[in-house]
Every structure is written in structure tokens, then in C-alpha cells.
Amino acid sequence: xxxxxxxxxxxxxxxxxxxxxxxxxxxxxxxxxxxxxxxxxxxxxxxxxxxxxxxxxxxxxxxxxxxxxxxxxxxxxxxxxxxxxxxxxxxxxxxxxxxxxxxxxxxxxxxxxxxxxxxxxxxxxxxxxxxxxxxxxxxxxxxxxxxxxxxxxxxxxxxxxxxxxxxxxxxxxxxxxxxxxxxxxxxxxxxxxxxxxxxxxxxxxxxxxxxxxxxxxxxxxxxxxxxxxxxxxxxxxxxxxxxxxxxxxxxxxxxxxxxxxxxxxxxxxxxxxxxxxxxxxxxxxxxxxxxxxxxxxxxxxxxxxxxxxxxxxxxxxxxxxxxxxxxxxxxxxxxxxxxxxxxxxxxxxxxxxxxxxxxxxxxxxxxxxxx
Length: 371
Hints:
It holds the Pfam family Beta-lactamase. By secondary structure, the protein is an alpha+beta fold.
């Protein structure tokens, strides 16, 4: 054997040896769709979670429900009667309706943009002449009112809820316009703008523009109607699940018009997400406008965050004093990701997102955002 041939053989053997000792880093084997139900159930049990999750892989939706929606009556999550609050995830829907109206009103006397001052609709609200529609949508109005979620034990009409808010804001100090405060206040005011632009209630617009347009069968505002039940929320305490039950009263939901009074299922909420930016609900250019507001100071725009360079979209929601959580993260084309609606959790936002990320890693490895 020639010396040159010996060198080649030696090099090949060394290459094979190194490959065996230090194999190339690859994505781990991911669970199949058939195994996903078991994976999610084991994860939820370990993390002390209960609720429903829509797992989306290559456009195929698999809804997996775990645990109890109501301990009394032993009603399981996944029961066709059960609805969940989406909390702040509703802000994206309200933002989308505002953008939809921007598109519809172009060229008319009622035309407006993200730069339009909200004094057009709220002449008696302090600083309204300085605040734009976009600043409400990006939470940079300077308004902050933590008490807005506290149950006032009054069943408000939409008009009364918005009027109460305007009066209360006029009584309190506020930060300068441009200051970021994540607050329901901004989206309740946007719900009021939808009412004034259309001459119809937010509920009417929601029903026509969202529910009927998309054919949603398990979505409503406020308390569930006949034949439907709101999941009760629970937490883990002293080593036991399903403790400290808390539901949402009709009065509390009536306060949060446009910002937290939407009830739905994981499947319905995914249907809504899949319609954004496709032309079915908003056109691609309109959805781009919603998610790229000039007034944004961080990645939040129009009700959601874009991360990974815009490759994924996400939002998280919870309601103070209750144990519900809502979280979605999807690829920009809506073909992969999750929608999680929980009625029991043992931790806060980071804990919920951490559990969600474990599912996301099984859908598409190293694609989604951890936070």
C-alpha cells in the first residue's frame, strides 16, 4: 500500500472515530401527534396545571384538555360546555377591529389613523388632545389604573363602564404621554372608540366582525349563555391541587369591555389567530400596521408581541385575584404553535410560559421564544 493511501485511510478512520465520540448536534426526536396527548397530560400533571391547549403542527390543530374545569360536579376540561376567559389576549382582537375600521373609513369624513388624537371621541378626557389612537394601542398613553380590574359589584352597560373610566382617570394624576404602562384602561377606551365610530355597541361589532365572520361556535362576551359554563379557576396550595376556587362575576366582566370580557375555547381562539393577516379578518398589510405601530416603545404593538425577528407572535393574559392564565405563541404563518387556556396554575407568568415552551420545543425545535 502506498504511503499516500495509508494517510487517506488513517484520516477517514480518525474522522469516523471523532464522529462517534462527538456526534453532530442535532434536534432531539420530537413526540409524534399520536404521543402529544400523553406528553401534555404528563407535563400538566408535573407542573400542576389544568386547562385546554390547542397544539398546532404544520397547520393541523390538536386540542388537548387536562384536569377539571369544575371540581363540584367533576366537570372535565374539554367538556363541550366549558369556556375560558382569555383576559388580555382580547386586546389583540380589539386592536384588530380598530385597524379594520381604519381601513373601512379611508377616504370618508370619519377617516382616522394611528396618529389621530383621541379628543375626537373623548373631548372631556384630560390630555386626550395629546394622546393618539396608536398610543392607546401601544400602552404609551401614560394612563395607569390598577383598580380597573377590582370588582365594583355593579353590572355595567358598556356606556357606563367607559363613562366610569373616563371620570376616574380625570380624578387621578397621570404620567406624561409616551410613558409605557401596560393597562386595561387603554383598550377599554379603544372599545369606546369602536362604539363611537360605528354607532353600535362593542358587543355588536364583536359579534359581526369576529364571531359571525369567522364562524366561531364557542366564543362570547361576558358570562356564558344557555348551555355553556365558565371554567372555575384554582391554584395549588399546601401540596394540594384545585384549591381556592375563584370564578369571574358578571359585574367584573362588565367592567373590562374590550380588554378582558371575552370567553372562548382554545380551538376557537386559534381559528381567530389564523384569520389575522390572511385577508379573512385582516389583510397582511393591515395586520402589519397593527403590529408595527409608530408609537411602540418595545415589542408590544396592537395587543401582541412579535419576537424572533417577527418569526413568531405571542401574548399572555391573566386576571388579578383569579387563577386563570391565557397564552399563545404561533409562527407568523400560524402553521405551528400553541394556544393555552388554563384554569389552574401553580405559578405566575414565567411558570406558564416555561410549560408552554416545553410543548413548543416538541412542535418545532429551537424556533420559538422562551419568554
